[in-house]
Write a structure and sequence with these properties.
Structural class: mainly beta
Strand order of the largest sheet: 1-5-6
Order of helices and strands: EEEEEEH
Number of strands: 6
Shape: globular
Distance between the termini: 29 Å
Strand content: 25-35%
Helix content: under 10%
Largest sheet: 3 strands, antiparallel
Number of helices: 1
Number of domains: 1
Length: 72
Amino acid sequence: MKYRKKPIVIDAVQWFPGLVIDGVNEMYECASILDRFNVLLKVRPGDWIITGIMGEKYPCSPDVFEKTYEKV
């Protein structure tokens, strides 16, 4: 079976060192996000920080973001 993502609108911001985003902890040249399973996810400069439908935050690389989302 194949499935398609439901069309939902998300909040996202592109992260670079020095940009303060709630929930994102900067460490030197990269940052991290603690996900809902208490796993640290690495954030690299240029990654998009997506806020999901449950308020969770997670990183997305620019190439995947570009192929998955469009500006509304």
